[in-house]
Amino acid sequence: MKDNLLFDLSDRVIVVTGATGALAGSAADYLASQNARVVYLGRNREKIDSALARCREKMPDAQCLGLQADVLDRGSLERVRDQVLEKWGRIDGLLNGAGGNMPGATITPEKSFADLDFEAFKQVVDLNLHGTVLPSLVFVPVMMKSGGAVVNFSSVSAQQVLTRVVGYSSAKAAVENFTRWVAVDMARRTEGKVRVNAVMPGFFLGEQNRRLLTNEDGSLTERGELIIRNTPFGRFGQANELHGAIHYLLAEASRFVTGHVLTVDGGFTVFSGV
Ligand SMILES: NC(=O)c1ccc[n+]([C@@H]2O[C@H](COP(=O)([O-])OP(=O)(O)OC[C@H]3O[C@@H](n4cnc5c(N)ncnc54)[C@H](O)[C@@H]3O)[C@@H](O)[C@H]2O)c1
User: Quick one: which of 44, 154, 248, 253 has the fewest CB in 10 Å?
Assistant: First the structure.
């Protein structure tokens, strides 16, 4: 591989789950801007169409395909796999972006662990862990033939305890362990042709956490302030600040890197708060 091709993603076929969301949607547009062939996978047809329209408005020549699937429904993922193979003949990358916290699975300040809603806990584990495992099960076997890279989404809550956030944190910790497990298995079985890594974003303002972190007038809530005080950069991340990490992990530039979790958090996890 020539050094000038280390970051070349031209014509790479990359499936992005959660592509109708904030972070994975932004990453999908970015990958399309790098001439990758991007599969925008989402649950809702209207949202997929508007994500595709946004992509094509910015880049009329972008190679993007919008396909509908639920990351918890193996049959729908297999249909997507077959459609992608029919159109482009291979799959080179998978960005497992579908996920997120759910209000019911958190512990509000006046409650304790004893009040945990176990059904909500199971749902958040389902989405974040099984919603990463199932797409991997469907798309990785395709990559085992010609090589490829998987990028999962962890969270700073996988490593450090964030008050309130119990189910989501357990799920993301499991995603990290799953990342390392599959990385080792794939490294040994494919002689390094398939690599599996993750990004660990800090706090990025999106629809999921906006109400928790900001008030209606845009000022910070008490929790938002606490997070900013503990983030050496003194601000939330912006979706495009994840692009570089994702690009690196999908590209040849990281060809000897697997099982790694790349932190993109403005210093949150290295700061003691003092
Ligand atoms: N925003 C942050 O600060 C932050 C921090 C750390 C990690 N993350 C992780 O980054 C990823 C993206 O988060 P985001 O902030 O962009 O959230 P988001 O809610 O904007 O995007 C998540 C997307 O996943 C989709 N989705 C949910 N359930 C699905 C299902 N069953 N099948 C298919 N799609 C489904 C949603 O429709 C949505 O489009 C998530 O894994 C999240 O946990 C986010």
Answer: 44
